[in-house]
Amino acid sequence: MPKMKTRRAAAKRYSLTGTGKVKFKKQGLRHILTKKATKRKRNLRRAGILSASEAPRVKRLLPYG
Description:
Blueprint: H1 8-13, E1 14-16, E2 22-25, H2 38-45, E3 47-49, H3 55-61
Antiparallel strand pairs: 1-2, 2-3
């Protein structure tokens, strides 16, 4: 049986943690940063964890994690 193909667009945006949760980079930290509070920008730097209900859809696109 041939290897399954990974959706490259999803692989660039999401990664899996050791426990199987889906990790992603938060949006809103690319431009127009002057009007955003320092606290808000600091919290946007941290990785987000995808909700449990959305995770199975993304995991289908990443067959090998």
